[in-house]
């Protein structure tokens, strides 16, 4: 992401946080692609509860309004507000907490290398997670040790 894209992403992040403050929604990520006149601003929002299309539409309308009023984006742009989707990696403690009980594929640091473990996410807090492998072995990992975690699809 270049400097203009980073500054724009930071502004979008701030507006989104304002829009969702005091709700069950939380911001996962903001990505900005393209150049002046062809920008695509992607906002990924999740919720501790249910998150439907109507909720995303309201957030999109309010964030878009702030972007337009503040004339944040130079030229035309496309704003896309969505949930992170099952294929995107988990990045925030709230995302892990929401997915307790699901099977995860987690890549993590072990000494000077990396290991991949697949198992059921049995617990998650602000410090890290606990995974139970199919063997029954419990593994406790801090978020600092996790390099990537994704929900393992059943098919």
Spell out the blueprint of helices and strands.
Elements: H1 3-20, E1 25-33, E2 39-47, H2 53-69, E3 77-82, H3 93-98, E4 103-110, E5 113-124, E6 128-132, E7 138-142, E8 146-151
Helix pairs in contact: 1-2
Could you write a compact summary of the structure shown?
The chain has 3 helices and 8 strands. By secondary structure, it is an alpha+beta fold.
Low-confidence stretches: none
The major β-sheet equals:
5 strands, antiparallel
Task: Specify the number of helices.
Answer: 3
Question: How far from one another are the termini?
Answer: 34 Å
Would you state the CATH class of the largest domain?
Answer: Alpha Beta
Trace the largest sheet across and list its strands.
Answer: 7-6-5-4-8
Care to describe what's here?
The protein folds into two domains: 80 residues, GMP Synthetase, Chain A, domain 3, CATH 3.30.300.70; 59 residues, SH3 type barrels, CATH 2.30.30. 26% of the residues lie in helices and 39% in strands. It has three helices and eight strands. It has a five-stranded antiparallel beta sheet. Strands 1-2-3 form a three-stranded mixed beta sheet. Strand 2, helix 2 and strand 3 form a beta-alpha-beta unit. The radius of gyration is 18 Å and the shape is elongated. The model has no long low-confidence stretch (mean pLDDT 92).
């Amino acid at each position: 992401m270049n400097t203009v894209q980073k500054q724009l992403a930071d502004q979008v992040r701030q507006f989104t946080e304002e829009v969702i403050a005091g709700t069950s929604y939380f911001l996962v990520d903001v990505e900005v692609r393209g150049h002046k006149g062809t920008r695509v601003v992607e906002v990924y929002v999740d919720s501790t509860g249910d998150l439907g299309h109507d909720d995303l539409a309201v957030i999109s309308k309010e964030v878009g309004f702030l972007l337009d009023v503040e004339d944040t984006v130079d030229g035309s742009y496309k704003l896309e507000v969505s949930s992170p989707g099952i294929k995107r990696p988990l990045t925030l403690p709230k995302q892990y907490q929401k997915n307790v009980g699901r099977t995860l594929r987690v890549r993590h640091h072990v000494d000077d290398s990396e290991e991949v473990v697949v198992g059921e996410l049995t617990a998650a807090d602000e410090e890290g997670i606990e995974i139970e492998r199919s063997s029954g072995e419990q593994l406790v990992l801090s978020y600092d040790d996790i390099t990537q975690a994704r929900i393992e699809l059943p098919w």
